[in-house]
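**Protein record**
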Amino acid sequence: MNRFTLILAAVILAGCATTKGLEVSPEDAAECAAVGCTPWSERQLEQMARHFFGLGVKAGIQREKGAI
C-alpha cells in the first residue's frame, strides 16, 4: 500500500470528515451520515487522481524498461 492509501484509510476509519461548515443538500447530508464523505473538493480529488495516475504510469514505464 502506498502512503496516500494509508492516509485515506485512516481518515475514513477515523470518521473525521464531517459536513459541519459546508453547505450541502439534505440528500447529501443523509448520504454522508450513512456512508461517510470526504472533506476534499472535486478539484482536489481530480488533482490527486492525476498525481497518482502519473505515478502509476511512471512505475509501469520503469517496469517495461527492464523487460527489454
